[in-house]
Design brief:
Blueprint (H helix, E strand, L loop, with lengths): L9 H17 L9 E5 L6 E4 L15 E4 L14 H13 L5 E5 L2 H7 L11 H4 L6 E3 L9 H11 L4 E4 L3 E6 L2 H23 L9 H11 L3 H18 L6
Parallel strand pairs: 5-6
Antiparallel strand pairs: 1-2, 1-4, 2-3, 4-7, 6-7
Helix pairs in contact: 1-8, 2-5, 3-6, 6-8
């Protein structure tokens, strides 16, 4: 976990998660009132916030986020219960994966398009795609809309010790110690997928980096972790000016 901003400050986590939701909406990554972002607020990671059921992402505020306990199945009997697939996926992630302090699950256009291909691999064909070289899980066993607990458990198991996953016939998920890290990973994962889809659209063969060069490039990204926090901070400044109610 990055010590720069590891925190259980629920107020700040609410603000950051609401910001990520608004920013995802601005980028057209969301899908109607579906998809889910969550963030842990307890030291053990099992108490987490998630966006409220069927509220449009452009309207979500920090105070709207729903506090859940990953070990409490009665959550779905509450009047403020989250979407069933949100509970299935995110309770499993927060129960099973220590790296899932924050979990962003979404169906953005390019990553989802890539996920529909027989081979959804993100190949290292530029520096952004190379960021994910051998650092991306692939879930190739889609089991339908994840409304049952077993599907959430299966998804969590497919991620293993990775922090990003391409979910075939489904979408993508990024995990992080903080909202900033998970958001930056999602931003670049969607950019990488866009590059792949556009490159495929030319009909020409891909120029894939040799493994050694791809690994060097991926490792270089790990030297720029501070940029992840700067990126998110800058985007929050945009929201502070244009949509300040996200903090409410």
């Amino acid at each position: 976990m990055n010590v720069q901003s590891a925190t259980t400050d629920e107020t700040q986590i609410r603000i950051d998660l609401a910001a990520a939701i608004r920013l995802a909406c601005r980028a057209d990554w969301h899908e109607g009132v579906a998809n889910h972002f969550s963030a842990a607020v307890s030291a053990d990671g099992r108490k987490f916030l998630v966006n409220p059921r069927w509220v449009h992402w452009s309207r979500v505020r920090a105070s709207d986020l729903v506090l859940c306990d990953a070990d409490d199945p009665s959550t779905m009997k509450r009047p403020d219960a989250p979407d069933p697939s949100a509970w299935s996926i995110h309770s499993a992630l927060h129960r099973n994966l220590p790296q899932a302090r924050v979990a962003l699950h979404i169906h953005p256009p390019y990553a989802t398009a890539l996920a529909t291909l027989k081979d959804p691999t993100i190949h290292p064909i530029d520096q952004v795609t190379a960021r994910f070289f051998k650092r991306l899980a692939y879930d190739l066993s889609f089991g339908g809309i994840a409304t049952e607990g077993a599907e959430g458990e299966r998804i969590a198991a497919s991620i293993g010790n990775h922090t990003s996953v391409m979910m075939q016939n489904h979408g993508v998920t990024t995990l992080g110690a903080t909202v900033a890290e998970a958001f930056d990973a999602m931003y670049h994962l969607e950019r990488a997928a866009r590059t792949m889809v556009l490159a495929y659209s030319t009909g020409q063969p891909l120029e894939i980096m040799p493994d050694a060069l791809a690994e060097i490039t991926a490792a270089e990204w790990e030297d720029y972790t501070d940029s992840q926090f700067a990126h998110f901070a800058e985007m929050k400044r945009v929201l502070d000016k244009e949509e300040p109610d996200y903090k409410d």
